[in-house]
């Protein structure tokens, strides 16, 4: 989905002291009031939470943690988060009580907004609880292995319930919820949107009367047994899964920010994506008299304009000799008929009579970028047309438009080819491209296949995209990578919890989607990878999120072959790459507690491997090299950490400075 609302650098502490106190093991609630972990012994199980206020008709479902007006304070052992969401003032007080987390939630209507109600959502990862059991109101409900046709598994009153994960060797997990009074509970399989089950506990269902208050106290805890035995990673050094070209990022919005320049200079970017601003290039119809008449439009390229910055950026990226995608979001009104409009988007549809002008605008933009800035994008796309951000197409229109665009680019002598897809979300969206994939004339103009990974997917859904790319003999590009399309709300993307989600997300993409490139959203001040400078300082803080991108960008050989890996530990994901020049890297993501891991299948001709590690408060830390014996080595992975073993050089990140 489009994440083109610009977030400027704002004064925000990544985690408050209260949240830091729950650092590595045990119960953990972030500064924004979101549950992350529930303690089990010396480890934990993942869980999430949010207080949400959906608009009538479920048009949007914002949460307290996404609110821009959110304020957090500490009162001794109690953490208070307060925000107004869709006309409802929410207060959430959180404290720990003998190993349990207690949520006291109060909701008061303060504005006339039509809502579905107010609920507390408890989310549980499907990879842990699928085929488990829900015990509620005297019923035993089996949790399905895959997404069922009917996603509402329970809907009724309850004061307590328990969710049991299927037993695994050395591992058992139970989640317990106790309410202060019986409330309406909707328990659903949410894998249509995210890889989780969700329990919605309603403070109030339906509209609140003016000034009306609803309250609920919830106590949540976990029990069971964690698996703390050493993990084993096995690499097949003689196998080859797919060709990998490296990671990069999007430079689409807030491109003038110092963050954009910093990432371009301090990350080894392997591919990039930019916006084609047709509203700035061709604001009116008929400005160009011929298909190659860019001179009639060049006046829009004014000093210090958005268009000038965009074209200069294209030139800089071109000089890096990397693949570039140029994508269109918003178009001027003359190019398309308005379908719908909201606060963020004008969704338009390009009709037949409008296509001549659209082709001329796109073609002259590309010619001008080539002739004046030395930049010729490898690929072109309309962004997320399956969803309508901000242009909507049917699968058949997508097919026909590729043929129109491809033939036009060919006529103009451009090397630019079309992206197949560039769709919103990876879950089942491969169906959208099948009409074009079955048309040889359309495929003649397709240079690569693309999806956006927001929300993640199951291994099977990722593999469907990988298999399609293999069948069509086109590289697969994850053109927007990120686990949460709504993380810009309240700048939630800045949290350490989001860093861990991104770490897991990338490893899953590499393991199952078999991409040629992964492009992070974004490498600019929009979704900034850098933290704000402290008061009175000019140097912005390094973040774990930036360092994770540096692991992937700088410490992955390119081009490379991905090697098959196996690990029996659910919390550890391993990806390995060997470059065409023999360079080698192994990435180890540990989403759980501290763990010893033994690795087999390391290269026999490399006795010592450099080690770089990123964890909470540990930024791309260069460790002592590890010496393998007969291709085997053992090391300790800290809790929630990312470790790379590599033959590549390992320079530390440089400081990022901003102006006062």
Brief rundown of the structure:
By secondary structure, the protein is of the alpha+beta class. The chain has a domain at 32-225: Distorted Sandwich (Beta-galactosidase, Chain A, domain 5), CATH 2.70.98.10. Strands 4, 5, 6, 7, 8, 9, 10, 11, 12, 13, 14 and 15 form a twelve-stranded antiparallel β-sheet that branches.
In words, what does this structure look like?
It is a single chain. The chain has 660 residues and is α+β, with helices and mostly antiparallel strands. It is built from 12 helices and 38 strands. It has a domain of 194 residues: Beta-galactosidase, Chain A, domain 5. The strands form 7 sheets. Strands 4, 5, 6, 7, 8, 9, 10, 11, 12, 13, 14 and 15 form a 12-stranded antiparallel beta sheet that branches. An 8-stranded parallel beta barrel has the order 18-19-20-23-24-25-26-27, surrounded by 5 helices. A hairpin with a 2-residue loop joins strand 10 and strand 11.
List the helices and strands and how they pair.
Layout: H1 17-20, E1 28-29, E2 35-40, E3 43-46, E4 48-52, E5 71-75, E6 78-85, E7 88-97, E8 100-109, E9 117-125, H2 126-129, E10 133-136, E11 139-142, E12 152-164, E13 172-189, E14 196-205, E15 213-225, E16 231-235, E17 242-244, E18 246-251, H3 258-266, E19 272-275, H4 278-281, H5 306-319, E20 324-328, E21 337-341, E22 346-349, H6 355-373, E23 379-382, H7 395-411, E24 417-423, H8 434-437, H9 440-443, E25 446-452, H10 459-472, E26 476-481, H11 496-513, E27 517-520, E28 539-540, H12 544-554, E29 560-563, E30 565-567, E31 572-579, E32 584-590, E33 595-600, E34 608-615, E35 618-627, E36 632-637, E37 641-646, E38 656-657
Helix pairs in contact: 10-11
